[in-house]
Amino acid sequence: MSENYYVTxxxxxxxxxxxxxxxxxxxxxxxxxRFHAAMGEDTFFLTGTDExxxxxxxxxxxxxxxxxxxxxxxxVRFQELWKRLGIHNSDFIxxxxxxxxxxxxxxxxxxxxxxxxxxxxxxxxxxVPCERYFTExxxxxxxLCPECKRPTTKLVESNYFFKMSQYQDWLIDYxxxxxGFIMPEYRSNETLGFLRKPLGDLCISRPKSRLSWGIxxxxxxxxxxxxxxxxxxxxxxxxxxxTDDEKFxxxxxxxxxxxxxxxxxxxxxxxxTMLKAMGLPMxxxxxxxxxxxxGQDKMSKSLGNVVNPMDMMNLFGVDAFRYCLMAExxxxxxxxxxxxxxxxxxxxxLANDLGNMLSRAVKLTIKYFDGRVPTPGSLEDxxxxxxxxxxxxxxxxxxxxxxxxxxxxxxxxxxxxxAANRYMEKTAPWTLAKQGNMERLATVLYTASExxxxxxxxxxxxxxxxxxxxxMKLGLPEEIAERSDFSGRLEKxxxxxxxxxVHDTEALFPRIVIEDPMAQLKAEGKKAETKPAxxxxxxxxxxxxxxIDEFFRTQLKxxxxxxxxxxxxxxxxxxxxIELGNETRQIVSGIAKHYQPEDLVGKIIIVVANxxxxxxxxxxxxxxxxxxxxGDTLKLATIDGGDxxxxxxxx
Length: 651
Ligand code: MSP
What we know:
The chain has 651 residues and is an alpha/beta fold. The chain has 23 helices and 29 strands. 42% of the residues lie in helices and 21% in strands. A hairpin with a 2-residue loop joins strand 24 and strand 25 (619-621). Helix 15 runs antiparallel to helix 17 and helix 17 (438-459) runs antiparallel to helix 18 (464-473). Residues 10-13, 21-22, 24-25, 50, 231-232, 234, 259-260, 262-263, 291-292, 299 line the site of 5'-O-[(L-methionyl)-sulphamoyl]adenosine. 5'-O-[(L-methionyl)-sulphamoyl]adenosine binds next to strand 2, helix 1, helix 7 and strand 13.
């Protein structure tokens, strides 16, 4: 294991909004980074966006926008979502940034000068969604793309080629002699299977006459660089390749790429051969995870079954959503997403096992020891058994992280939590209290709390803010509560100091009960028109107060009204165009009886920014403004003084 851990996600296309798949890879990278940092390594975590190419150009055209303006607007969706998901990336690269474009040009020129790039006439079959060329023999029946099974277009044109074919034997040998370079092993075999056919040269240009949105080739102004050749280079341009040798060497020596299985060939064939041609060492590993399926089906916009991470975050809370994603996907395999399976996982692992155990330990400490961590006596076998299991789980988790088996590691940790619950049953602290056996009671509660300290330390990388809260409830000071240190303090039994105050506030993971949306629809005699996730409602049992976290799930933001107009045929409605920081949105609101459109323009109002889009009288509305009404009088909630930027959080 290297001391420097550099992890990357694929850089995402900015042609669409991020979905659960993108969120998963990014979250996985975040969790791995936090684990490696806890294991004492120096870490660097890179993510970003892939902004050139036909897909992005098309998306911009559809919106009648210049490509860069389109990118500038959509990139924010990724950046904001990552913030909301608690992602701590060290850098965010955009392929339209100068720092990246400069390096792509430098590499192109160097390879061209070395004779590794040449020009030739080419006949190929191009797949727009995959942004890739295929030869006749690669195609499926009917000329369909072998990757996404959609129709391809035949093209004949002059282009530039990278001499990829000359590295075929070297690559086969490299993969065979470096187990762990491509993971899981079956993906390595899949790549070797692909390499059984002769490897062609890689077309790395697009004539500007057909596609202008890309990095211009430094040796031919009529062409732009192929988007994949450009995009893959982000992994080195972001860490100082060609500009900061020391930084580059430091991170590249510990590089690990995380990808989805859909982009295996580009990462395990194109990228290694490009690196070889540049004379650079290979990354340590390329790990391809499986797909999140919606139930049993592939997620796709046309099927309307794409899971929106925002919905899930609102339902579970950020940290619990992170936990469920990590625990539910066996790394490498496909996983099925259903809201029901996530709720089941949440309720059993977090609400029942973990939440319940914390509540027991803290409540009993409050009841019998005035809320102060008690001083333990000597440990009996039953205590030692739990202690040993808790300490052993640190090693098991380390191992799971090093072998990319996060789900297994979490399972080990949850086994300790379940053992701790059983320990409470076995030792029956409430009976000890009745018997007045306070010394034994102190030992039991201390053992239970120390076990929870270890467990929560192991879960910190997955649930950073919930576990910090958890640990502070146990009585740990903030600076220890928020840091996980797998090699030092975590395994030191006795870290909880006797006499410190524990805290019992509201449940960290209130149970979620779900009203069965299908049953409800049936009862209403309606046909289900939307996916269950849209209809489901979560109710925290027995709680009508909200916590600060719950309040902040509703994003209230300042917005500036840019335009306002009446909606034809709806005398109560106004259609507003509002500015929310860098973004503009349309909202529809029932305030036409109370405000003239011209009175609204320029006002700074307050909107719910993360409200699910809705159609009001057939018009899309992306948010809701706040207003108060008494009798016939309605007044907008505005910002005092009015002179204030838009997009600022209110709370
Ligand atoms: N821009 C390229 C990657 C270039 S990397 C040098 C690209 N972008 S993408 O926006 O299409 O994102 C692909 C990645 O998103 C996948 O590899 C995977 O990491 C993630 N996912 C997208 N859908 C997914 C699922 N349904 N399930 C899991 N992850 C998937 O390809």
